[in-house]
Here is the input.
Amino acid sequence: MLWFARYDCGDAQGPLCFGSDCLRAIALRPVAGNQDRRESSKLIKATIYHNPRCSKSRQTLDLLSDHDVETEVVLYLTDPPDRDALRRILGQLSIAAIDLVRKNDHRKLGLNEPHDEDGWLDLMVAHPAIIERPIVVVGDVAVLGRPPENVLKLLT
Here is the structure.
């Protein structure tokens, strides 16, 4: 079952608007998937660190939904991971902190470049917009959804 944040910003796009100002999560609600297919398949639970304004993040979320993955959506811009969560995610991704940084966003913000892993973690905690997205976690393993098809590795 897919869970996602319900938005209500008052935009003309309706209650599920993903417009640029629609990052205020009101509540979570389930979206019904194909119940028959789910009952005959193994239920997989995933967490996605999601930015609804990002097309790759939306495509990844759609891919998880298409595969009937029970998904917890974390809107990391409004609910950013702390240092410990980032360390855990880096371990699950098997990458260094610098590899989880969106370099262009880092430069656009005019941020200094840290010299060590702890410095990069501090920077991502303070500026979650520089965290690469989307990140999908299943169990003890995570992948970046760039391209979205990368998440299929977690579903087998």
Observations:
- Residues 3 and 102 are 26 Å apart (CA to CA).
